Amino acid sequence: MKTIKLSQASRALAEYAVDLRDEIVVLTERNRVVAAIVPLKETDRESVALSGHPEFLKIIERSRADFRSGRVVSLEAMKNELKVRQSPPKRLQPTKARRGRARKRRLGTRLRG
């Protein structure tokens, strides 16, 4: 991770973005982080949008607080909680229109043969 003071950032942000490759460039002002240039080569837009969404950040913070206080759930307990009984897959039936066309095709081949 590369840190640059905002007052010393002399190049255009686009130039920093081109040079960073897989490195994060953090911009600071008065020793406080004010921005970051992050490579997004392997990231989708939804992940980027979620990472800054206030409601999502509240959920993450609540989860971290629960973990710190020892309120955790085992993976096995979570699987049991989320287990959904699935009915066996039903065989899809053709629509009425398709059944009619198929019937006509079968009748047509019988008459010809």
Can you describe this structure?
This protein has 113 residues and is an alpha+beta fold. Among the domains are: 1-42, YefM-like fold (3-Layer(aba) Sandwich); 46-82, no CATH class. Helix content is 49%, strand content 13%. The protein contains 5 helices and 3 strands. It has helices spanning 13-20, 45-51, 54-68, 75-82, 96-112; strands at 2-5, 25-29, 32-37. The chain has a 3-stranded mixed beta sheet. The mean pLDDT is 80.
Spatial order of the strands forming the largest sheet: 1-2-3
Number of helices: 5
- As residue ranges, the low-confidence spans are none
The CATH topology label of the domain at 1-42 is YefM-like fold
Radius of gyration: 29 Å
Broad CATH class of the domain at 1-42: Alpha Beta
3D shape: elongated
Assign a percent range to the helix content: 40-55%
Beta content: 5-15%
Query: How would you spell out the order of helices and strands?
Result: EHEEHHHH
Please summarize the sheet with the most strands. 3 strands, mixed
Would you report the number of β strands?
Answer: 3
**CATH architecture group name of the domain at 1-42:** 3-Layer(aba) Sandwich
What is the CA–CA distance across the termini?
77 Å
Q: Class by helix and strand content?
A: alpha+beta
- Calculate the mean pLDDT score and round it: 80
Layout: helices, strands, pairs:
Elements: E1 2-5, H1 13-20, E2 25-29, E3 32-37, H2 45-51, H3 54-68, H4 75-82, H5 96-112
Parallel strand pairs: 1-2
Antiparallel strand pairs: 2-3
